[in-house]
From TrEMBL:
Lineage: Bacteria, Bacillati, Actinomycetota, Actinomycetes, Kitasatosporales
Predominant localisation class: membrane
InterPro entries: MFS, MFS_trans_sf, MFS_Transporter
Compartments where found: Membrane
Official protein name in the record: MFS family permease
Length: 408
């Protein structure tokens, strides 16, 4: 009987990549949760702050595009090992400068590096999932959520004790950078995964296939819609609970924490759901839960009902992004790195669109009505759920996946 267990190298690669997802989740949370402190440190006026914040996802998109071309010449694991310390050091630089140009430079480096980091991390995750032969992608994103909760908690402690940003960031970066470098020794990319997994089916090598945007477009839309929903929660949940649902200032801090915890729970058990029911069913269920969550938030008579809606949102939205990356890997097995890099751009598109969209609609209409827009977009995901299923037999030459996949 053939041993179907993954090799030791694959298990090491999985653990090391989970550490990198955790580190990135913590670093990103340490940045976004201390934006008011950064604004105060540099004396940035309210009118100028959105330009600084918008520059990060724009540059991250450029970093993701650059990574698509970079991995044609080198391994994604090497890219990740190089850029992850850069992201952490850029965080420290952003919190340690004294002039606005220093913050601008640090955020520019952060944005470019985080785009390369997000793309390369998910490239490795897709490759490992293929080698494992079962769903493990949600587990990596669960590690990211856990890192986000940890980073946000540390940021809260820093704010509570009124720690200067350099004093908060420096010891954490001193721990996170070595952790990421050590974990990087065991990264396994697609070629390494195929060598490590002796039972792995033959796949077309990276670089020999073409990625067409036409079959990838449904997944790009789902990615953007998911991040519009996510950015709505992260940017507007506190204001909504306090101003619309008349919760207390202390209670207004709870919805995002609840959202993060339920995101962690959903991702921790999501892979089991995919293995049992399939990715299509899990994506449909996630979209329905998220849509229902937005509906509850929009109709909530009070703060506690609103928090119930945010709980549903976390459980629903959490499965969409990891499964979108996994579906891109299945659709373009011979060019999954390029597909992931292009798909990752729509992460930042959703982030850029979501917050101003809800803010503008809330200002001219009402915030309750504004919540129905991300609800509708998330529910559109159900239409594209079939894109998350296995690629039909016969796709390509009828025997194995083609070296060139271009349906455009």
């Amino acid at each position: 009987m053939t041993d179907s267990r993954p090799s030791r190298r694959l298990r090491q690669g999985r653990a090391s990549l989970a550490i990198s997802f955790f580190v990135q989740g913590a670093v990103f949370a340490l940045l976004v949760t201390r934006i008011p402190a950064l604004q105060d440190r540099y004396g940035i006026p309210d009118g100028l702050l959105p330009l600084f914040l918008a520059a990060v996802p724009v540059l991250a998109g450029a970093g993701s595009v650059g990574t698509e071309h970079l991995v044609k010449r080198t391994r994604p694991g090497l890219v990740l090992r190089l850029v992850q310390p850069v992201v952490s050091l850029a965080l420290l630089a952003a919190g340690s400068g004294t002039a606005v140009w220093q913050l601008a430079l640090a955020l520019a480096v952060f944005g470019l590096a985080v785009g390369a980091l997000d793309a390369s991390m998910n490239m490795l995750g897709v490759s490992l999932q293929r080698a494992y032969g079962r769903s493990i992608m949600l587990g990596f994103h669960a590690a990211y959520s856990l890192g986000g909760i940890t980073g946000a908690s540390l940021a809260w402690a820093g704010a509570h004790w009124d720690l200067p940003l350099p004093m908060l960031y420096a010891p954490l970066v001193a721990v996170l950078v070595p952790a990421a470098l050590i974990a990087g020794r065991w990264y396994v990319d697609q070629r390494g995964a195929q060598r490590a997994d002796r039972a792995d089916r033959a796949e077309a090598p990276q670089g020999g296939a073409v990625v067409s945007m036409r079959p990838l477009l449904p997944l790009c839309l789902v990615m953007a819609f998911a991040y519009i929903g996510d950015s709505t929660v992260s940017n507007w949940s506190a204001k909504y609970l306090e101003d619309v649902l008349h919760g207390s200032e202390q209670l207004a801090t709870v919805p995002y924490n609840v959202y993060m915890v339920t995101t962690l729970l959903g991702r921790s058990f999501g892979d089991l759901g995919v293995r049992r029911f399939g990715a299509v069913a899990v994506v449909r269920a996630g979209a329905l839960l998220a849509g229902g969550g937005f509906a509850v938030v929009a109709a909530a008579p009070g703060a506690w009902a609103g928090m119930g809606g945010f709980t549903l949102l976390g459980l629903g939205l959490c499965v969409l992004v990891p499964q979108t990356f996994a579906a891109a890997g299945r659709l373009f097995p011979g060019a999954s790195d390029a597909a992931v890099a292009r798909l990752n751009i729509f992460n930042y598109v959703g982030f850029l669109v979501g917050s101003p969209l809800v803010g503008a609609l809330g200002g001219v209409w009402s915030y309750r009505a504004a919540m129905l827009v991300p609800m509708a977009l998330v529910l559109v995901t159900i239409r594209y759920a079939r894109s998350f299923g296995p690629v039909p037999a016969g796709y390509g030459d009828g025997h194995e996946r083609p070296r060139t996949v271009d349906v455009g």
